[in-house]
Amino acid sequence: MSDLNGNHIIIGIGGTGGNILKAIRKRFFQEVPSAEERRTTPLGFVYVDSSMELMKPNDPTWKVLGENSQLGRDSFLYLRGANLDTERNRKGIKSWIGDWKIWTNIVGAIGDDGAAAQRRRLGRFLFACSVDDYKGILENQVREVRRKSDRTDVTFHIIAGLAGGTGSGSVVDVIAQTRKHFKPNINANLKYKILVYCLVPEQTPKPNWDRGFYHANGFAALQELNALQVKRFIPHDVSGEDEYVPLDGVDRVFNSCFLFTNANENGIMIDTEHALPEIVSDLIFHYLFLQVDDTTRAFEEAFSLENIVDGEKEKNERAKTVDIATQEKPVRTRRFNAFGIKRIVSPEEEIVEYFTYSFARQALLQFKYNNWSDDLGYRDQPKNEEYITFVNDKATQNSWMLSDAHLMLSLPILPSEKEQNWRPFQDDWNAIVPDLANTAWTRNESRAINELARFCDRRYENNFRRVGVPEFYRIKEQARKDIAKEVSDTIERDLFSQWQTGQKSVY
User: Fold this and answer.
1) How far apart are CA 13 and CA 161, in angstroms?
2) How far apart, in whole angstroms, are the C-alpha atoms of residue 203 and residue 262?
3) DSSP-derived 3-state class of residue 261
4) What is the DSSP letter of 52?
5) 66 — pLDDT class (breaks 50, 70, 90)
6) Phi-psi region for residue 201, left (φ > 0), alpha (ψ -120 to 50) or beta?
7) What is residue 240's DSSP assignment?
8) CB–CB of 172/235 below 8 Å?
9) How does 19-49 read in b/e, with b if 16+ C-beta sit within 10 Å?
């Protein structure tokens, strides 16, 4: 067995992290049978969980080759229940906890085994309540591995599943708190690497595993991990020492994040609970201990975990150039990897094309049907809408010049008619009759009524809108097509305007 290549701390979070950590310990006992050699190996362990399932003394699942590989109590961090009324006002919690009243029922059974119960914020709250204990355990483990090796550099391996409340909820804070206390220092030649290993939620989890938050937890955790690495998300400092975790001057919050799942590209499924921890532990154990011979050294140099962790220099340099030129932070990190010689990349062109297509399709559907659904966006079908009421509305008919007053030509329709400042029939007669009555009364009081009737007849026959009523309607009858065209053009302009502003659809 070769010596450990440097100081290493394995940190398991939640049930998945605990199972993989247990597999690494059992492999360690198999490969290093000497108890004395194990004691002098600069390898530390920290297990963080809100469940006591893997922390119970003399747990038989930790036994290998007749020995108990279980961790010592100085490596366990049990996230115990806490009094929300007391803790919610603590500086490291009150800034992000939200409305504490809605937490009362959720935190009621917080002391039970498996307390986080797939609730991310609850997992984060539990870790925040024990963050000082985490710092103490971690620093103690670092001191021990340094004492054993006389070397200062330490590599932290953080393992978590992204579906559960503890793993998904506290992985970002575990990374941030670890980096807060162990920042690389070029001047002092201190290199603190943080490697993260995350189990992505299975597409089809086992029965009773999904409590309603399974896949949502994984999506949220991946978003936060990506944002954390590109510095678009700086988490609140749950220790309360600072408002946000001080990451100024830190180039890489973590050096690499390996994503793995229970299926490969050929569709072969493995058991998440038993087989998968063994596979992941083999990879990590290979990185910690095994050395390659001369025949495979070239392959190892080309595709080793170390090279993958260091990333693609050319791409990173190009990313930095773009960043400086645009003065914007990058959107996606290139620090997500997969096992083997493959690397997870962001298909940027496909993403841009997909979003372009999606936005264009949504815009076209809005123009065509304008049928919005909160779940689906704009739908590819017309609304179930009653248009008769809209068309019969007085305001609509007036704007479209389809009211009775317009159709009787009491109000103008054509532009030339509007220039003549027509008054509605009622207003026109109300304005002229008082003048005619005064004139008739002045000429002959005894025949004033007859005179007024004669004046009105003359206006009706000859003077209404300059030509009289009969001639006026004879002329307008000949202009029916022009009037109809003006009405239809007005309706089209109004509907087109409402279509342009998104109020109406083409349909």
Assistant:
1) 8
2) 9
3) coil
4) -
5) confident
6) beta
7) S
8) yes
9) bbbbbbbbbbbeebeeeeebeebbbbbbbbb
Q: 218 is written with which tokens?
A: 């994984």
Contact 120, 221 (CB under 8 A): yes
Among residues 285, 272, 275, which one has the least CA distance to residue 30?
285
Cβ(12)–Cβ(18) under 8 Å?
yes
Q: What is the chain's length?
A: 507
Pairwise CA distance, residues 443 & 403, whole Å: 41
97 vs 103: CA distance, rounded Å: 9
Q: State percent of the chain over pLDDT 70.
A: 86
Output the pLDDT for position 454.
85
- Residue-wise pLDDT for 36-54, tens only, equals 999 999 999 999 998 888 8
* Nearest alpha-carbon partner for 114 in 54, 154, 193: 54
Summarize pLDDT for 347-370 with one digit per residue, the tens. Answer: 777 888 889 999 999 989 988 888
Model pLDDT, residue 417: 85
Amino acid at position 22, single letter: K
Report in angstroms the alpha-carbon separations of 394 from 164, 389, 399, 499: 59, 10, 9, 21
Q: What is the pLDDT, as a whole number, of residue 338? A: 81
Confidence of residue 374 (pLDDT cuts 50, 70, 90): confident
Closest CA to 21 of 189, 158, 138, 120: 158
The runs of H, that is alpha helices, within 202-296 are: 214-229, 275-288
Q: For residue 88, give both structure tokens.
A: 């919610």
CA 445 – CA 440 distance, rounded (Å): 7
**d(C-alpha 440, C-alpha 436), whole Å:** 6
Q: What is the pLDDT of residues 176-195, one digit of tens each?
A: 999 999 988 766 567 899 99
Report residue 241 as tokens: 């020492």
Distance separating alpha carbons of residues 7 and 1, to the nearest angstrom = 16
Q: Where is 43: in which H helix or E strand?
A: strand 43-49
Query: What is the DSSP code string of 372-417?
Result: EETTTEE-SS-----HHHHHH-HHHHHHTT-SHHHHTTSS--SHHH
Residues sharing a CB contact under 8 Å with residue 36, sequence separation 6 or more, in sequence order:
none
DSSP string over 182-213 = S--BTTTTB-EEEEEEEEPPPSSPPTTT-SS-
CB atoms near residue 245 (< 10 Å):
22
Q: What is the DSSP letter of 459?
A: I
User: Among residues 201, 175, 184, 328, which one has the least CA distance to residue 257?
Assistant: 175
Question: Nearest CA to 197 among 155, 252, 159?
Answer: 159
Q: How many CB atoms lie within 10 A of CB 263?
A: 15
Q: Can you give the pTM of this predicted structure?
A: 0.66
CA distances from 483 to 415, 421, 424, 477 (A): 10, 17, 17, 9
